[in-house]
UniProtKB/TrEMBL annotation:
<protein>
    <submittedName>
        <fullName>Sugar ABC transporter permease</fullName>
    </submittedName>
</protein>
<comment type="similarity">
    <text>Belongs to the binding-protein-dependent transport system permease family.</text>
</comment>
<keyword id="KW-1133">Transmembrane helix</keyword>
<feature type="transmembrane region" description="Helical">
    <location>
        <begin position="181"/>
        <end position="206"/>
    </location>
</feature>
<feature type="transmembrane region" description="Helical">
    <location>
        <begin position="12"/>
        <end position="33"/>
    </location>
</feature>
<keyword id="KW-0813">Transport</keyword>
<feature type="transmembrane region" description="Helical">
    <location>
        <begin position="260"/>
        <end position="279"/>
    </location>
</feature>
<dbReference type="InterPro" id="IPR000515">
    <property type="entry name" value="MetI-like"/>
</dbReference>
<feature type="transmembrane region" description="Helical">
    <location>
        <begin position="137"/>
        <end position="160"/>
    </location>
</feature>
<keyword id="KW-0472">Membrane</keyword>
<dbReference type="GO" id="GO:0005886">
    <property type="term" value="C:plasma membrane"/>
</dbReference>
<feature type="transmembrane region" description="Helical">
    <location>
        <begin position="106"/>
        <end position="125"/>
    </location>
</feature>
<feature type="transmembrane region" description="Helical">
    <location>
        <begin position="69"/>
        <end position="94"/>
    </location>
</feature>
<dbReference type="Pfam" id="PF00528">
    <property type="entry name" value="BPD_transp_1"/>
</dbReference>
<dbReference type="InterPro" id="IPR035906">
    <property type="entry name" value="MetI-like_sf"/>
</dbReference>
<keyword id="KW-1003">Cell membrane</keyword>
<dbReference type="GO" id="GO:0055085">
    <property type="term" value="P:transmembrane transport"/>
</dbReference>
Amino acid sequence: MKKNWGPALIHLFFWGFTIVSLVPFILVFMVSISNEDSILQNGYSLFPSQISFAAYQFLFNDFSEIAKAYSVTIISTVIGTIVSLLITALFAYPLSRADLPFRRTLSFYIFFTMLFGGGMVPWYMTYVNMFDMKNTIFAMIIPNLLLSAFNVLLMRSFFATSIPESVVESATIDGASELKIFYKIVVPLSLPIMATIGLFNMLAYWNDWYNCMLFIDKPELYNIQYLMTKTLTNIQYLLMKSNSSAQVGELLAKMPRETVRMALAIIGIAPLLFAYPFFQKYYISGITSGAVKG
C-alpha cells in the first residue's frame, strides 16, 4: 500500500517555518540576559557565553515607574479594546443588512476614510481644545476607538456572509427587537470575527505610544511603550554626549546598552505572547470567513 507523504511534508514544512520564526524572539531574549561586554566583543548569539541580568536590574531599579506604566497600558488596552470592538460591531452590523437606507452611501463614507484624513493639526486641536483630553488617560483610549475602517468592512463582510438571513427573519417574526437580535443571535454567531477584530484592537492599543507622546506630559500617565521609547531616546542621547563629557562616558561604561534594548523589547512583547494562543482558533476562522467569502 502506497503511503501518502503529502500531509506529513506539509506539517514538517510548517513546523520548520514555526521554529525559524521563533529564532528572532529567542535571540532577543538571549541577548537580554547576556553580559554587556561579551555582546560588544562577540556580537549577538543564541548561546550567550556569560549570563547576566544586569539589563533587567537596570530597568527594574525603579519598579514603581514600570508598574505604573504597565497599569496605564492595561487599563487603556482593556477599556479601549472592548469599547472599540462594540462600536465597530454596532457600525458593521447595520451595513450588512440589505434593507438599511443609504447603505451604499455609508459604506462609501467608511471606505473614503481609508484613503483620506483630516490632518494631524485639526485632529490634535479637536481632542485638546474641544474635548480637553490633555494629560488624561482618555487621550490614549478615545482617539483609537474606531481604529480602522478596514475592521468595519471586514466585520460587515462576515455578518453578510456568515449570519443566515433566515435566522434574523425568524427572530423578527417572533417579535425580537433589532437590539435583541444583535446581542442574542448575531454576537454569539460572530465569535470568530469578534476575536479577530478584538486582537487587532488589542495590539493597536498595547503598542500605541504616539498618542501618549502627543497628549501626555505627566510621567505617572506614561504607558509602557512610551516609557520604553523614552528610555531608548535617553540612552541614545547619552551616547552622543559621551565623547564630550568624561563623566557621561564613565556612566555609560557601567550601564548596559545593547542588552537594555533587548530587555525593553521582551518587557513590551511578553504579555502579547501569552494572549496569542487563546485567540489563534478564532483568529484563523474570522480572517477566512470575513475576507475570502466577502
